[in-house]
Every structure is written in structure tokens, then in C-alpha cells.
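[job 4471] stage=fold_predict status=RUNNING
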Amino acid sequence: MSMSRRWRVGQVAIVVVLAAASAVVVIVLIGGAARRTLTPAEEPARRSAVGLAPNGPPTPASGWSVVYADAFGAPIGRGPGEDNTWFPNNCSLTTNCAGFNADEMEVMNPSAVAETAEGLKLKCTYTSAAQSPGSKHYVCGTLRGQAEGLPGYSFFKWSPGKGQTLVFEAVAKFPPNTGEADPGWWASGPPWKDTEVDFFEGYGASRTHTTGWKTDPLYTQWFASPLLSAIKPGFATDPSQAFHTYTFQLSANNAYSVWIDGMLQPWATDVGPARPDLSAKTTLILSYALRTCSCTTGFTSGTREFDVKSVAVYEDKAHDGVGIENAGIAPGTIVR
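[job 4471] inference complete, writing C-alpha cells
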């Protein structure tokens, strides 16, 4: 079934409870439209929370609306009670798929995606057996909204440049890095030219790599003309040792700013503006890839993880729903 939906912050909701023989069905009326939520039997046992507002950006005069949130409290899938807002691969298959770039060392596979009591875990595992396509020796995990759509799934989509302010936030712990880690929280088309936005990409395979993440950059980019980019040159605190909150705001004037743990980053403040493709219908992506480094990788055995507690998308309430498709709160997630 389609994903569980909740009313947004500040909206008035009327809840109608219908008693059936073996279950209670809750119908939420929002703006006159009925949207069915999960029955108690369908709801996952664990429910995880996402905040009512992003961490860092100033609150707009109209307030914030939570247009999408996922704290990974339910298994990824399209069955009852499952999180059908993502697909666990870089293609529409449940077998190996190629990575995102030619210099990547992995294949993607749903087996490398797990939801636990701590949230989402995207794994990379070394294997001595070469994997197709590409004779790769690592099997890694990704979640993404499939632009072409798949039966039973409901992928969140957003379009830029319509006067709204959007905030994309992730609470994440980076994987260990020995010269190859490439974790990302990002979005991409269609169309596929100039629509990619990297809310963050940890580039652990940089030419400046020394130890861990100390000298490896954190990239943020918007590929819309004139190709906006802002780069944090390294990490004073190892991002693989604890969870941090990464917040990326696209303002109404099509410039962007970045906060980490609620602190505005001077290297990424009012970057832009860009000239976005107004026809874009962009889907979200979480990925743990591995890049080929000019150094020698230290990842030669075992399994590593990119952990994500939650992701959320906020929109200024004056533009609530503008440029948004398939808004809602994923099963197993609450907003508070």
C-alpha cells in the first residue's frame, strides 16, 4: 500500500476512527481530502522521530512544513507497514547494479541495505570474488527514489525555482575512511542534465588523503548553471565517530547555505544564485560508494557502514506543497 501519511505542521486535521471487526482504520481529513493511515496491525513496532523544524536555518515568517520525513523505523519495501518511499538499489533490479561513476569500486545490491534499531545502515563489504557488472570487489548499499516509478512505491519528488525555501536534512555517521569512502546525501533528475544537488558528499579518495577524514573534503554542489560549489577542506572532528546533523537550505533566490550541528558554515553561506531547470522532478538518494584513490586503499577485508538516523525535507509554509510530489511521513516515523 502507499506510505503512511500524517498532517503537516500547522494544518488542521480531523481524525475519523472507523471500528472494524479486527482493526481500527484511521482516516485523516486534510483540506477536505481523505488520506488513509496504517492500521495498528500494519504499523511497525518501532517508531522513530524527526524534528518539527530543521536544525540551524532561521524560521520563515510562515513557519516550516514537513513535506517528507523518514527515520527508518520500518523495512524498505512495498508490503503492508513497509517503507515504500525508497528503492534499495541504483536500478530497478534486486540483483547487482552498477555504481554511479566510472571510477567507483563497487556494485550496488539490496543485500547491503539494513534497517535496525539505530536506523538505516548502508554497508560496503569486500569480496575476493569479482562481482558483475565491472568485476568489482565490493558490494555496497544505496537508497533512491526511482524516477521512472515502480508499482507499489511512492517516491518523494521536488522541483526547484518556484519561490519556495526548501531544507534537506540528514542525521548521519560517516563510514571509516582509508582512502576510498564516498558517502552521499543528494538528489538528481530527471531531466539528468544540471539537476543534481549534493547536500553533502564525503570525498574520502581525495589527492590530499592522509588519515581518516582529516584532510578529505566535504563537497556540496548544485549542478544548475553556473554550477555552484562549496567545499569544506577537511574535518577537525572525525565524522565517522559520531552522528552529526547536516542541513542544506535552498533559498527562494536559488542560493544555498549549509549548517552542521546547527552551526552555519562560513565556507557555504549564500552560495549562488543558480538558474535551475524549472521542469526538474528530482528524487532523493542516500549512497555509500567507494572511489578509486591515487593512494592505496586500506579497505581490504570485512564490512563498513554509513549510518543514517533520519532524513527530512522542510518547506516554508507559505509555499507548502509547491513543487512537491508524494509528500508525507514514511511508515515507522513520527514528527515531533
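[job 4471] summary: The radius of gyration is 20 Å.
[job 4471] exit 0
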